[in-house]
Amino acid sequence: MAVDSVRTRTEPRVRARGVPRMWQLCAGAFLVAALLVGLGIGPVGIGALGIAESAVSHLPFVDLHSPLSSVQEAILWQLRAPRVVLAGLVGGMLAIAGSAYQGVFRNPLADPYLLGVAAGAGLGATIAIAMGFAGGSGQIVPVAAFVGATLAVACAYVLGRSAGAARSTGALVLAGVTVAAFMTALQTFVQQQRSDTLRDVYAWLLGGFATAGWRDVVVAAPYIVVSSVILLLHRRVLDVLSLGDDEAASLGIEVRRTRLLLVAAATLGTAAAVSVSGLIGFVGIIVPHTVRLLVSTSYRAVVPLSLVVGAGFLVFADVLARSVLSPAELPIGVVTAFFGAPFFAIVLRTSRSIR
Amino acid sequence: MIELHDLSVSFDGVYAVRGVSTSVEKGEWVVLIGPNGAGKTSALRALCGLLPFEGRVLLDGRDTSTLGRRDVARLAAFVPQSPETPSELTVGEYVLLGRTPHIGYLATEGRADRIAAERALERLELVEFSERPLGSLSGGELQRAVIARALAQESQILLLDEPTTSLDLGRQQQALELIDSLRADGLTVVSTMHDLTLAGQYANRLLLLDRGSIVADGVAGDVLSESNLASYYGAQVRIVRDEDGIFVLPLRQ
Asked: Which of A4, A19, A246, A250 is the best substitution to test chain B (most B C-beta atoms within 10 A)?
């Protein structure tokens, strides 16, 4: 009887919510608005229509003349566009990596820097700057930061595994803290040895997009795209992992292998993001939690929405960073925390889902 | 349905389960009993491959050491003592997670999976709860949701670690009746249980473990004796037998 009623019904009612249509539209609109504002606002204002027409005119086989002057064209496509695209990529990456880390470690405070990405990148960048690779055409600093970041996490993973992380993630987190402390000590030491580079190191650590160009986008994008795709594909697996290691394993998931894959993907993407933007805090925690509070705690919603909302959030933050004290720039980390923290406090206060 | 050959489980050289051999028939309900630390939970977890072990475990005639985790998950569903139930997940979503062994690693549920999940919900009379978040359920309803998730796995074997902890007496009985009724669908059940009276009432067979080894194996009437409980539990009890069954009553010393 019960079985028959299921078979005769056309569609089973049980379903996973995923991302509700309304939130898909909201997140999409937020990102589009961020991109238009990011491209349009600056010492030379460019309207949304102008941006759209100029963009269309650059498409092949379209016979439309851009309404913008050549100066505006250059500002738009050589200065602002790479900056906006890079901020979007980095913001999306930090947020999606944060959501994945929170799922893998089942810890709401996990952020993409948990296993030492930040300290490792800081050490790599500091060494490169101390050796005199800061200015010029050199892409040495980002590469050094990238290598430092991935090395730090690899060390943390190996150390954690040998300390029993096979059974719990606690050892892995402690290993991350240990490696980060050691690398920060080394970084401070190198910095002290070459105090003349202090300013450059500090500027790099604070992060930002002031010097962003298309080359940065080309360097970072492949890692960020691959990493994001891997994390997006794991959104259902992350829900399974939220049941705990034992239950995930009893449901047929190879927990250790899956955790390694997710950590590796999130780390590579984060390292690439950090190497072109410096250390930008807060995005990896605030964006996934805002999504959780507003939409759903299921990773099927949190992972994709974090990517889109994180991208829009950092583009907006970058607009503020370059326009509040224009022509000077605020460090973007200051903006993410200064505007992000009160916003998150409001969400936290008003959300019904916190019990 | 289940065969154990010389099953041993050790943690850093200390054996929690030592040389356990037994078999469980299809449709049988076997309950593992024994004092704290006797190895009940370790044996259960080794059965479904959650712990490394020595010896051989055959589920439905297949050696689990030759199977991948996903294949084992299709043969046996495991419900831990205190399952994680993320409070924001709806009952429907939670039960759908039980379909994981049948879904490609990176794929999402298809229609067949949603039908299987709905069937599990109907079996446990939870259909009207399917849109409710787990956090809004009572203890008894939550336990049913957990069992529904295990049923959605559509395996022939159900392994339950202390299925009645944190339930009141009435809910305990309801949960056990429910598990008993699932056996009519051909399910084989192995569980651990603290309450010896309830264990005796519902199990076809009791396995009494002490320090990792089987020290008594049989129907409740044979295993639940005053001498067994004195020597292995260090407990003073009176066993009362009447037409309704066997009752284990603790005595003050």
From this structure: A250
